Amino acid sequence: MGLLCAKLRHCCCSCFLRFSTQSPPEAEEFQVLILGPAASGKTELGHRLSGLQRPEDDQEATNGVRCYNASISSEDLHRPAVKLKLTEVGGNTEMQRLWRHYYASSHALIYCFDLSTDPEHLQDTFNLLAESLKGTQLAGKPVLLAASRYCDGVQLYDVEYAFGLEQLASSCNCPLLICHMDEATDLQRGIRWLCRQLLARKTQLERRIRYDVNMQVWQRRKRSLLSSGKLAQVHRQRFRRQHRKLWPAVLGFGESTARPNTAPPTIFFVRSPQVENPKDN
Ligand SMILES: Nc1nc2c(ncn2[C@@H]2O[C@H](COP(=O)(O)OP(=O)(O)OP(=O)(O)O)[C@@H](O)[C@H]2O)c(=O)[nH]1
Ligand SMILES: [Mg+2]
Q1: For ligand 1, is residue 36 a contact (CB within 6 Å)?
Q2: Distance 114 CA to ligand 1 centre (A)
Q3: Which range (1-15, 58-72, 187-201) has the least confidence?
Q4: Which ipTM score applies to this complex?
Q5: Which of 45, 115, 167, 177 could join 151 via S-S bond, C-beta 3.0 to 4.6 A?
């Protein structure tokens, strides 16, 4: 009996050890792009999601790119923990030209907009979103719309309906959700939704990113090859021109009497009647 107990204890201990030494499942990592017009709250959101306090003296516009890390615990999602690598690109007109360079390598988009602006500005904001989604490497990827500056009386579903955001999302095959970034619980709901979308589509998204990034590299290479090809062509043309100039000069020394290819087939004279019979008159 004592031997049996000892054996059982040994077995239980080894099982416990096996469980305790087993590392927890690794967090799934995703690249998320934060875009939106200037002063729409991107930097603010980046700080809120990463749990960092934004310094008082750091209120200026982003002239380039800012990166943040956000960890979403597994208890919230009932799945492996998720690490979001957030990349914010500045929103002014000059910075908007850089946006497309980040589409291919991103798993998802968080698009910020200022809810307190007038309808015309909001329309411009969503036109910009449509430009970023339609026919680009962001099409088909999850999109979270984050409304900054809570505005009394404006409901998010009204914004979604008035600006045709659902139609835009379905035309680009993008799962889309809209949330308030000023309300902590609503922002959490949005982020949890985004993480669930990312986990559910992980394999397809990774395959897509690999394809798009490889395509980008190949296109860059093709462009450089083409430009070097053009250079070689210029060199060849210069070489040919030199030949054309040199060849008649060499022939001109009299070593060859061959007629040029461009000469007429026969040489003939045309006599005028006056010259033929000058004594007839
Ligand atoms: N009250 C309030 N203020 C906000 C909110 N979001 C941003 N702000 C303020 O608006 C200003 C601009 O916000 P940013 O987060 O820097 O804007 P941004 O989108 O990063 O702008 P760019 O970097 O220029 O593209 C800052 O002073 C913020 O404190 C919000 O939701 N509520
Ligand atoms: Mg910013």
Answers
A1: yes
A2: 9
A3: 1-15
A4: 0.94
A5: 115
Rounded CA separation 186/45 (Å): 13
Ligand 2 ion local residues (Cβ < 5 A): 42-43, 62
Tell me the three-class secondary structure of 131-170, residue by residue.
Answer: HHHCCCCCCCCCEEEEEECCCCCCCHHHHHHHCCHHHHHH
What's the CATH code of the domain at 189? 3.40.50.300
Residue 268 is assigned to a structural domain of this protein = no
Atom number in ligand 1 closest to CA 62: 23
* Structural domain contains residue 10: no
**Is there a domain that residue 230 lies in?**
no
Structurally, the chain folds into a number of domains equal to 1
pLDDT tens by residue, 119-166: 999 999 999 999 999 989 999 999 999 999 877 778 888 898 989 999
- Give yes or no for residue 246 having a pLDDT over 80: no
Query: Has residue 264 been placed in a domain?
Result: no
Domain span at residue 146 reads 24-222
Q: What does the pLDDT look like over 42-92, one tens digit per residue?
A: 999 999 999 999 898 888 999 999 999 999 887 666 667 899 999 999 999
Quote the CA–CA distance of 187 and 145 in Å, as a whole number: 10
What is the C-alpha separation between 13 and 232, in angstroms, rounded?
74
Q: Is 59 in the pocket of ligand 1 (CB under 6 A)?
A: yes
